[in-house]
Design a protein that fits this description.
The complex is a heterodimer of chains A (87) and B (715).
Chain A (H helix, E strand, L loop, with lengths): L1 E2 L8 E6 L5 H8 L7 E7 L6 E5 L2 E5 L1 H4 L3 E3 L14
Antiparallel strand pairs in A: 1-6, 2-3, 2-6, 3-4, 4-5
Chain B lengths: L6 E6 L5 H9 L16 E6 L5 E6 L11 H11 L10 E7 L3 H12 L5 E6 L1 H6 L2 E3 L1 H7 L5 E3 L8 H14 L10 H18 L5 H9 L4 H6 L3 H17 L4 H17 L3 E3 L5 H10 L4 H20 L1 H21 L4 H19 L2 H17 L1 H15 L7 H9 L1 H6 L7 H10 L9 H16 L1 H30 L19 H35 L6 H8 L5 H14 L2 H13 L6 H9 L6 H11 L8 H10 L15 H13 L4 H11 L2 H29 L1
Parallel strand pairs in B: 1-3, 1-4, 4-5, 5-7
Antiparallel strand pairs in B: 2-3, 6-8
Classes of the chains: A alpha+beta (87), B mainly alpha (715).
Bound molecules: guanosine-5'-triphosphate and magnesium ion (MG).
The site of guanosine-5'-triphosphate (GTP) has 25 residues of chain B, from helix 1 and helix 4.
Chain lengths: 87, 715
Amino acid sequence: MTPLSQLLPGQYGKLASLNPERAVDQRLMALGLLPGMVLKLVRRAPLGDPLAIEFGGQVVSLRLAEAESLIVDVAADCPVQRPKKSS
Amino acid sequence: MSAKEITVALVGNPNTGKSTLFNALTGLRQKVGNYPGVTVARKSGRCDCGDGLKVELVDLPGLYSLAAASPDEQVVTDVLLGSLEGSQQPDAIVVVLDATNLLRNLFLASQLAELNLPLALVLNQADVAHEQGLKIDTQLLSQRLGGVPVVLSSAWKGEGIASVRRAIAEVVNKKPKMSRLAWPAQVESALDVIVQAVKNDTGVAPSTADAQRILFSSNAHTSDRLGWSQAKREPIIRQARDQVRAAGYNPLAAEPLIHYAHLRKVLDGVTSGGAGKQGNAAALDRVLLHRVMGPILFTGIMLGLFASVFWLAKFPMQWIQAGVDFLKAVVAPALAGTPMLQSLVTDGIIAGVGAFLVFLPQILILFLFVSILEDSGYMARAAFIMDRLFSWCGLNGKSFVPLLSGFACAIPGLLSTRTIEDPKARLATAFAVPFMSCSARFPIYALMCAAFIGPLYGPGWESVVMVGMHCVGLIFAVPTAFVLTRFILKVKPQPFVLELPRYQMPKPRDVIWRMWQNAAEFISKAGTVIFAITIIIWALCYFPRDAQMAEKIRAAEPALSSHELQARTQAAMIEQSWMGRFGKAVQPVFDPCGFDWKITVGVLASFPAREVIVSTLGVTYSIGKGAEADSQHLRQAMQEAKWLNGPRTGTPIFSLAAVLALMVFFALCSQCGPTIATLAQETGGWKWAAASFFYMTILAWIMAVVVYQVVIRIV
Ligand SMILES: Nc1nc2c(ncn2[C@@H]2O[C@H](COP(=O)(O)OP(=O)(O)OP(=O)(O)O)[C@@H](O)[C@H]2O)c(=O)[nH]1
Ligand SMILES: [Mg+2]
C-alpha cells in the first residue's frame, strides 16, 4: 500500500482506494480511475510537480498533493518497473 | 412550415472532434484545436440531413461527466435541460465519442441515456482507431445499446459525414432511445425517495436524471434549480444515500462504479485489437517533457515564436509600406487642386489606415505559429510544464491556455477561463489575462523599435527590446496574481486534472483558416474602427484653419525662405487646432513620462483600442506634409521632433527614455473597450472590470514615469 505520489516514473500500481468526497477524485472516477484499475506513473513534470499518470489508454496530469491520498497496491501482477527498452 | 425548428445537440468528451464534425455538417467554421477545452460556449448552425430535413445543430463545450463543475460544462447541462436562456431543450442528442477510447467516452453517453432523449452515437477519429489496428463492431454496439444508431466518422477528413447525416435523420424521425442500465434495487428506491420528497416540496416531480444528480453529486446545483427548500434537503438526501450505502456503494462513487461495470459488459466483444497505441506520444513526451530538455525547448519555442514573427514579417511589411507610399504619391498630385481633400486623403486616411495595415504580416505569422502549437498537441504539455509555476501564484495549468491566448488577443483568452472550475481562480486568471502582450500592442512596439532602437543600437537590440516588451506584462501579472490569489481572493489550491492529448501533424487547412479569420478581422477593423477614428483625429488636427496664419508668420519673421515658411505655418496650424489645444491642456499629466502633446493625443485616442496609437502618430506627424509624408518621412519626422518650449527645449522628444516609457505604458495600460466589456461579462459585473481598468492604467502611468525618470538620468 503506497501513495501514488511515491511511485517511481515508469512504475505501475493497482488503485486500492481513493477519496470520493474530493472533487479531484470525482473527476478521476469519471475518467474511469476506479479501485482495481491498473495505472502507471508516466513521469513527473520537469519541476517535480505535477505528475502524468496513465490509465485506460489515456494520459492525465495530476498534482503531487492530490496524488498523496490515492493509495495504490504495487502488487505482484503489476510490472514493478517498466521493462527497459531493448535499444 | 414547421412550427418549431428541430434542434440537435452535439455532446461529448473534450477534444473528441465535436467542433470539427459541426463544421463538416454545417459548413461553418468553429474554432478547433488539439487540447481539451477549445469550445467554451454554445454555438448553433443549420445542418441539412437530406430528404428536406433541416435541423439546427448545436455545438457545445466538451465534458466528461454530467456532474458539471466548471462554467463551460454547466452550459452543456443547462442546454440539455432546456434551462439556458434563449434555447429550448434539444429534440435529440448526437454523442460524439473518441473511437480510440470508447469505455471512457461511453460513460457520458450512459449518463445521457438517463435524460431519456432520442440519441445517436458517432464514433469519431475512426482513422486513428484504424491506424492503431482497433476494430469496432458498430452493429453489435448498437444492438447492445437498444438499437440507437452508431456510426463511424473521421470528421476532419470528411469521411463518414453522410452516415452521420443519416443518423441524425434517424434520431429525429424514429426517436430511438439508448437503453438505460439496470440500477441496483436500493439505488432505484433511493432515487424514488428523492423524487417523492422534491415533488412534495415543490409540487413538480423531478426527472430521473435530476434525481440522480441530487443523489450522486456533491454540489447543490440541481436542488437549487428545482427550488427544493434547503432545510428539507439534508435529511432526505442522507436517508437516500444511506440506502445506496446499504447496497455496498459509496454514494459519491456509485455512479461511475455502476456505469463503468455496466459498460465493460456492453463493450465485451465490441472492440478488438489496438494494443500498441500511444506510441508517438510516449516517444515525443520523453523529449518535450524531459527534466532538462523540456523547459529548454519550452523557452526556445516561446522565444522563437516572437523572434520569428518579427523577422519573418520584415519583408512583407516593407512591401506593404512601399505600396502605401506609392498610393500616396499617386493620389496626392491628383488632389492638389483641393488642399483640404488632399490632406484628408493622404495625411488622414492613407497615413492613418496605412500605419495600421502594415502590421498585417505580423498578425498572420503570429497566428500561424499559435495555431500550429494548438493543433499539434503541445499546448496541454506546455500547461503541464508551467503548472508548478502557476501553482506558486495560486493559479493552475489550466490558466496557461487563457494566458497564452492572451498573447494573441485578450478576448478569446478571457473566454477560455471558463474551463477553470473554481470561480475565484477563474477571476484571478481573468484579471491577469489583459496583462499579456496582445497582438494589438505589437504595432507600437514595432514602430518604436524600427524608428529608434534599431537605428540607434542596431537590429540585435531591436529584437531584444521586442521580446522584453512582451515580458513586461508577464512580469507584472505574476505578482498581481500572487497578491490577488493569496491575500484578496484567498484561492484554495486548485486540482489540475488535464488530459494530455495525442500528438498530431497540424492540419494545413485548419491553420490557414485560423490565419485567414484573424487577417479578415484585422482588415475589417482597419476599414471600420481605424478608418473612422483616423478621420476624426485628422479633422480635429486640421480645424479650425486660420487663413491669415502664413501672413502673420511672415510679418513676424520676414527673413524666412518659402520652404521654411510653409513648415512653420503647418506646425502653427496643428498647434492651434482643436486637437492641439486639447493635447496641450492634458499634456501636463503625461509630462513626467516625457510625452509631448502629440503623444498625449495618441495615448488618449487609444483608450478605446490601443492599436489606434500608430494611426494617430501617423496622422499627427504627417499632417500638412501631403505626398511627402511617406513612411521614411514619418520616421524622420518623429526622429527629428524636438521640444519647442519648456525645460527640455531643443532636445529630441523621442529620446530613449521617452521611447521606452511609451512602450512600457502601452504594455501595461488598459486600453481596449472590448476587453473591459468581456471582463465585466465573464466576472459577472462591472466591479472587477473597473478594478482592472484603474489598476492597469494607474500602474502603466507610474511605470512609465519610473522608466522615463530613471533612463533619462542614466543615458
Ligand atoms: N485524426 C483525426 N483527428 C480529428 C478528427 N476529428 C477531429 N480531429 C482533431 O481533433 C482535435 C479536436 O477537435 P475539436 O473539433 O476541436 O474537438 P472538440 O470535441 O470540439 O473539443 P472541445 O471543444 O475542446 O471539447 C483537433 O485537432 C481536430 O483536428 C478525426 O476524425 N480524425
Ligand atoms: Mg469544440
